[in-house]
Protein backbone atom coordinates (compact mmCIF):
# COMPACT_ATOMS: atom_id res chain seq x y z
CA UNK A 1 0.00 0.00 0.00
CA UNK A 2 2.00 2.95 -1.31
CA UNK A 3 0.94 6.23 0.38
CA UNK A 4 2.36 8.06 -2.62
CA UNK A 5 -0.54 6.68 -4.68
CA UNK A 6 -3.32 7.76 -2.32
CA UNK A 7 -5.59 10.16 -4.17
CA UNK A 8 -4.19 9.19 -7.59
CA UNK A 9 -6.75 8.91 -10.40
CA UNK A 10 -6.71 6.04 -12.89
CA UNK A 11 -9.06 5.70 -15.88
CA UNK A 12 -9.67 3.03 -18.53
CA UNK A 13 -12.07 2.15 -21.33
CA UNK A 14 -13.12 4.19 -24.36
CA UNK A 15 -11.05 7.29 -25.01
CA UNK A 16 -12.30 8.68 -28.32
CA UNK A 17 -12.67 12.18 -26.83
CA UNK A 18 -9.69 12.09 -24.46
CA UNK A 19 -11.86 11.24 -21.45
CA UNK A 20 -9.11 9.09 -19.90
CA UNK A 21 -6.90 12.15 -19.41
CA UNK A 22 -3.67 10.59 -20.69
CA UNK A 23 -3.03 13.06 -23.53
CA UNK A 24 -4.19 10.55 -26.14
CA UNK A 25 -7.41 9.40 -27.80
CA UNK A 26 -6.39 5.73 -27.58
CA UNK A 27 -8.80 3.26 -25.95
CA UNK A 28 -7.30 1.51 -22.92
CA UNK A 29 -8.08 -1.98 -21.62
CA UNK A 30 -6.01 -1.42 -18.49
CA UNK A 31 -5.96 1.52 -16.05
CA UNK A 32 -3.78 4.49 -16.98
CA UNK A 33 -2.74 7.21 -14.57
CA UNK A 34 -4.31 10.61 -15.14
CA UNK A 35 -1.84 13.49 -15.22
CA UNK A 36 -2.99 15.82 -12.44
CA UNK A 37 -1.14 18.34 -10.26
CA UNK A 38 0.70 16.77 -7.34
CA UNK A 39 -2.23 16.98 -4.96
CA UNK A 40 -4.59 14.23 -3.98
CA UNK A 41 -7.91 13.85 -5.71
CA UNK A 42 -10.78 13.49 -3.26
CA UNK A 43 -13.61 12.74 -5.70
CA UNK A 44 -14.12 11.84 -9.38
CA UNK A 45 -17.14 11.95 -11.70
CA UNK A 46 -17.44 10.54 -15.23
CA UNK A 47 -19.94 11.67 -17.84
CA UNK A 48 -20.50 9.94 -21.16
CA UNK A 49 -17.32 11.34 -22.72
CA UNK A 50 -15.81 13.69 -20.14
CA UNK A 51 -14.36 13.31 -16.67
CA UNK A 52 -13.78 15.65 -13.72
CA UNK A 53 -11.89 15.42 -10.43
CA UNK A 54 -11.92 17.51 -7.26
CA UNK A 55 -8.52 17.91 -5.64
CA UNK A 56 -7.59 18.66 -2.06
CA UNK A 57 -8.15 22.34 -1.50
CA UNK A 58 -11.25 22.43 -3.69
CA UNK A 59 -9.72 22.85 -7.14
CA UNK A 60 -11.67 21.26 -10.01
CA UNK A 61 -10.10 19.73 -13.12
CA UNK A 62 -11.98 18.37 -16.16
CA UNK A 63 -10.99 16.68 -19.42
CA UNK A 64 -12.47 14.93 -22.45
CA UNK A 65 -15.31 15.99 -24.77
CA UNK A 66 -16.19 19.68 -24.77
CA UNK A 67 -18.80 19.96 -27.56
CA UNK A 68 -21.31 21.51 -25.14
CA UNK A 69 -18.68 23.33 -23.00
CA UNK A 70 -19.20 20.65 -20.35
CA UNK A 71 -15.60 21.12 -19.20
CA UNK A 72 -16.50 24.44 -17.65
CA UNK A 73 -14.93 26.86 -20.10
CA UNK A 74 -13.99 27.16 -23.72
CA UNK A 75 -10.88 25.20 -22.83
CA UNK A 76 -8.08 24.38 -25.21
CA UNK A 77 -5.69 21.43 -24.95
CA UNK A 78 -2.17 22.04 -23.75
CA UNK A 79 0.45 22.47 -26.52
CA UNK A 80 2.01 19.04 -25.96
CA UNK A 81 -1.34 17.30 -26.58
CA UNK A 82 -2.13 19.50 -29.56
CA UNK A 83 1.15 18.53 -31.18
CA UNK A 84 0.95 14.80 -30.52
CA UNK A 85 -2.74 13.98 -31.07
CA UNK A 86 -3.97 14.42 -34.62
CA UNK A 87 -6.90 16.79 -34.92
CA UNK A 88 -6.75 18.07 -31.34
CA UNK A 89 -6.78 21.81 -30.88
CA UNK A 90 -10.27 22.93 -31.79
CA UNK A 91 -11.49 22.95 -28.19
CA UNK A 92 -13.98 20.14 -28.90
CA UNK A 93 -11.75 17.66 -27.09
CA UNK A 94 -9.30 18.25 -24.24
CA UNK A 95 -7.36 15.01 -23.53
CA UNK A 96 -5.41 16.36 -20.56
CA UNK A 97 -6.90 17.73 -17.32
CA UNK A 98 -7.41 21.49 -17.24
CA UNK A 99 -8.48 23.53 -14.23
CA UNK A 100 -11.98 24.98 -14.14
CA UNK A 101 -11.23 28.44 -12.76
CA UNK A 102 -13.16 31.12 -10.91
CA UNK A 103 -15.54 28.77 -9.12
CA UNK A 104 -14.33 29.02 -5.55
CA UNK A 105 -13.65 25.88 -3.49
CA UNK A 106 -15.53 22.85 -4.82
CA UNK A 107 -16.71 20.05 -2.50
CA UNK A 108 -18.05 17.64 -5.11
CA UNK A 109 -18.61 17.31 -8.86
CA UNK A 110 -21.26 15.37 -10.79
CA UNK A 111 -21.58 14.71 -14.51
CA UNK A 112 -24.05 13.30 -17.00
CA UNK A 113 -23.78 12.97 -20.77
CA UNK A 114 -23.09 16.61 -21.66
CA UNK A 115 -23.60 18.50 -18.40
CA UNK A 116 -21.49 19.09 -15.30
CA UNK A 117 -22.59 20.38 -11.90
CA UNK A 118 -20.35 21.39 -9.00
CA UNK A 119 -21.27 21.58 -5.34
CA UNK A 120 -19.40 24.53 -3.88
CA UNK A 121 -18.14 24.52 -0.31
CA UNK A 122 -20.72 27.19 0.59
CA UNK A 123 -23.56 24.78 -0.28
CA UNK A 124 -24.66 26.19 -3.64
CA UNK A 125 -24.75 24.23 -6.91
CA UNK A 126 -23.45 25.57 -10.22
CA UNK A 127 -24.01 23.82 -13.58
CA UNK A 128 -22.69 24.23 -17.12
CA UNK A 129 -22.69 22.44 -20.48
CA UNK A 130 -25.94 21.28 -22.10
CA UNK A 131 -29.26 22.22 -20.52
CA UNK A 132 -31.54 20.04 -22.62
CA UNK A 133 -33.58 18.77 -19.67
CA UNK A 134 -33.45 21.85 -17.41
CA UNK A 135 -30.47 20.57 -15.42
CA UNK A 136 -29.44 24.21 -14.80
CA UNK A 137 -32.65 24.82 -12.87
CA UNK A 138 -33.96 27.00 -15.68
CA UNK A 139 -36.16 26.42 -18.72
CA UNK A 140 -34.39 27.98 -21.67
CA UNK A 141 -31.24 26.39 -23.10
CA UNK A 142 -28.29 28.70 -22.62
CA UNK A 143 -24.70 29.06 -23.68
CA UNK A 144 -23.00 26.27 -21.74
CA UNK A 145 -19.86 28.36 -21.30
CA UNK A 146 -21.76 30.51 -18.81
CA UNK A 147 -22.06 28.70 -15.51
CA UNK A 148 -25.46 28.92 -13.90
CA UNK A 149 -26.19 28.81 -10.17
CA UNK A 150 -29.24 26.66 -9.42
CA UNK A 151 -31.86 28.81 -7.73
CA UNK A 152 -33.27 27.44 -4.48
CA UNK A 153 -30.25 25.33 -3.51
CA UNK A 154 -28.04 27.04 -0.94
CA UNK A 155 -27.08 24.49 1.71
CA UNK A 156 -26.49 21.22 -0.17
CA UNK A 157 -24.03 18.69 1.24
CA UNK A 158 -24.15 16.18 -1.62
CA UNK A 159 -25.22 16.10 -5.27
CA UNK A 160 -25.80 13.34 -7.81
CA UNK A 161 -26.71 13.24 -11.49
CA UNK A 162 -28.40 10.31 -13.20
CA UNK A 163 -29.46 10.46 -16.82
CA UNK A 164 -30.90 13.95 -17.12
CA UNK A 165 -31.89 14.36 -13.45
CA UNK A 166 -29.99 16.26 -10.75
CA UNK A 167 -30.56 15.75 -7.01
CA UNK A 168 -29.10 17.46 -3.95
CA UNK A 169 -29.12 16.46 -0.29
CA UNK A 170 -30.02 19.48 1.84
CA UNK A 171 -27.90 19.95 4.93
CA UNK A 172 -30.28 21.59 7.35
CA UNK A 173 -32.95 18.88 7.36
CA UNK A 174 -31.73 15.96 5.21
CA UNK A 175 -34.34 16.60 2.52
CA UNK A 176 -33.63 15.55 -1.07
CA UNK A 177 -34.30 18.09 -3.83
CA UNK A 178 -34.43 17.05 -7.49
CA UNK A 179 -34.80 18.88 -10.81
CA UNK A 180 -34.21 18.37 -14.52
CA UNK A 181 -35.55 15.53 -16.67
CA UNK A 182 -38.06 12.96 -15.47
CA UNK A 183 -38.20 10.42 -18.27
CA UNK A 184 -37.63 7.56 -15.78
CA UNK A 185 -39.40 9.21 -12.83
CA UNK A 186 -36.07 10.50 -11.52
CA UNK A 187 -37.81 13.41 -9.83
CA UNK A 188 -39.74 11.06 -7.60
CA UNK A 189 -43.03 11.83 -9.34
CA UNK A 190 -45.08 9.64 -11.67
CA UNK A 191 -44.95 11.97 -14.65
CA UNK A 192 -42.67 12.46 -17.63
CA UNK A 193 -42.62 16.25 -17.24
CA UNK A 194 -39.25 17.89 -16.64
CA UNK A 195 -38.89 20.52 -13.91
CA UNK A 196 -36.55 23.50 -13.67
CA UNK A 197 -37.49 23.99 -9.99
CA UNK A 198 -35.65 22.00 -7.31
CA UNK A 199 -38.48 20.17 -5.57
CA UNK A 200 -38.40 18.13 -2.38
CA UNK A 201 -38.90 14.41 -2.90
CA UNK A 202 -41.63 13.08 -0.62
CA UNK A 203 -41.98 9.62 0.79
What does this 3D model show about the protein?
There is one protein chain. The protein is mostly beta strands and 203 residues long. Helices cover 3% and strands 39% of the residues. The strands form four sheets. Strands 3-4-5-6 form a four-stranded antiparallel beta sheet, with no helix packed on it. The mean pLDDT is 85.
Mean pLDDT: 85
Q: What's the helix-strand series?
A: EEEEEHEEEEEEEEE
Structural class based on helices, strands and sheet pairing? mainly beta
- List low-pLDDT spans: none
Sheet with most strands: 4 strands, antiparallel
**Radius of gyration, in angstroms, nearest whole number:** 17 Å
Number of strands: 14
Strand order of the largest sheet: 3-4-5-6
- Shape, principal axes of CA atoms: globular
Number of helices, counting only DSSP H or I runs of 4 residues or more: 1
Chain oligomer state: single chain
Content of β-strand: 35-45%
Amino acid sequence: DDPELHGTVYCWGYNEQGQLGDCTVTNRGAPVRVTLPRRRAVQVAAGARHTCAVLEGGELYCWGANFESQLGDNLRPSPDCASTVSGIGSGACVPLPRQVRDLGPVSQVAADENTTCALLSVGSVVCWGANMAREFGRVAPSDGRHRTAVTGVDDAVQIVMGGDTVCALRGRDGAVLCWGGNTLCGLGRITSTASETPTEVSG
